[in-house]
Every structure is written in C-alpha cells, then in structure tokens.
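Lab notebook, bench 4. Continuing the backlog of folding jobs that were queued last week. Each job is logged with the same field layout so the records can be merged later without manual cleanup. Today's entry covers NAD(P)H-binding protein, a 306-residue chain. Filled in by technician R.K.

JOB TYPE: sequence-to-structure
TARGET: NAD(P)H-binding protein
LENGTH: 306
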Amino acid sequence: MAPLIALTGATGFIGRHLLQALPAQGFRVRALLRRPAALPAEATGAVIGDIARPQNMAAALEGVDAIVHSAALTPGLTGTPADDYRAMNTEATVALARAAQRAGVKRFVFLSSIRAQAGPTVAGVLTEASPEAPESEYGRSKLAAERGLAALDLDWVALRPALVYGPGCRGNVAELLRLSRSSWPLPFGSLVAGRSLLALENLAGAVATVLAHPAPLRRAFVVADRDVLGVAAMIAAMRRGLGRPPGLVPIPVPLLRAGFAAAGRTETFRRLAEPLVVDAAALAGLGWTPTVATAAGLERLARDAG
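JOB STATUS: finished
OUTPUT FIELD FOLLOWS
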C-alpha cells in the first residue's frame, strides 16, 4: 500500500499544490484541517482544529507514515509580533513533531524557509554550510523550530525554500507580476543581480524526494530552481508570457537606490537589486531533479494569470 502522508496547511498556497501533487507521486494524503473543508477525491481529511492547540491527534495520525508540515504564520501580514511567530512556527511545530513521535510516524518533513538561514540578500552562494544568520523574527522562528526538531528522537527533514512562485502566489512575485502587467516602461533594466526562486512544482518534487528517501536524514536542505535570474530577466519573462516586449529602461543602480531610499523603501530595493543565490546541490544528491526552469515558469505564470 502507498505511504500515507499527513499534510498540514492544505488550504494554503503551498499546501493546496501538495494536496494535488503528492498523490500523483504515489502517496496517499490525509489533510489535517482546522475545520471541515472540501478535498480532492484522492485525499482524505481529519479535523484537528487550531494547529497550535490540536485535538484528536492520536486518531488523526493513526496509520500515518510521514507528516508534511506546511502550515505557518508568514510575513504577509505586517506587524505580527515575535510571540505570534514563536507560538505558531516554533512551538506548534515542535508539539506536532512530539505527537508524531508518540504515534510512531517515521518521518517529519518541515517546510521551513530560506529566511531561517539568511536575510533577504547574501554575498556569495548560499548552501547549508553557510552560517545560519536569519535577520527577521519569522526566520528566527523557523530556525528555532528546526533546532527543536533536532532535539527529538525522530527522523526529520527541514526544507528551506527560496521564494516560491506559482498560481496564487503573493508577496514579491505577485508584485513583480503586477508591475509586468502595466503598460509603462519599467526602470529596472540594470537590476541583474541573481535572485533564486523556486517553482511550486519543483518544491513538490523536493518534498516527494525526501519522503521517499530510504535512510534517516535529520537535517536541513536549501531548495531553489537550478537557474538564477535578475529582476530584469524575471520581468522580461513575465512580459513574454503576456505577449509583450520587456520594456525595461536601464536606470543606473545608484540612482534607483537613491530613489527608493527617498521613498522610505530601502528594504524593497535590497530585495530587487542585491543577490540571493541558492545552491541546492545537497538535495540534488538525494535524486531531486527540478523540472521547471525559472524563466519558463514565470512566463507561464504570467500567461495563465492573464
């Protein structure tokens, strides 16, 4: 019989995709839900309530081979206190892992974040061997969860994805898509510093890879598409998907920096103009092969979004 996977966060951006993708990879899926919800025919559900204070966990985890924990409090809502990140991303994760341990679950796959390892920009190439230096409360809460997992007698894996894109994405990629849809030339032609992204399909493949790996892992892996694009190339790809030319003007980077600073958006400028290159060779060593190239994925995203 196919392995049974318990999935949290099944109604979220990443979880919705995993709910469809994991059965296609040969897994049975049981969604752990806050409240009853409609599920695809190939998945079942168990209502456990609030992930921070779950109920009926013994029944929900009966027969489960592995957990994929994608539920999280993300930085999408501004002003979230550090205590909230700690309660949801750290304490709830470790509590769920303890429940998994009691239930005899064989592996716990935690959807962490590249922010557990670094801030929004990094000089050089980021790998698991790079120093762990999160710069946000969100990143620190994810890293603390990983360390909590490492303290348990449980086979665990933390995947640290780069910025994930796909249908329904929000945040920075959604903002680039909004800009790409505009009919105006954009002053970002000089923004060529490499930024790693991760297609939803490639993330699902990474999850399937670590679920299927036969040996204990007990470690973190960074995850990103193989190819690396600058923001100018990202916008050009999206506009190709919309059937339009790039329309990019190469304004000198120092002038752009000054303009963003004057508008009080220095952090936004860093995310656009400075590099964050991720090398996922360690995960590829387990047999993971990303199937979507970043430019093609962004082109399709824009085309399908219309």
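OBSERVATION: The chain is about 40% helix and 15% strand.
SIGNED: R.K.
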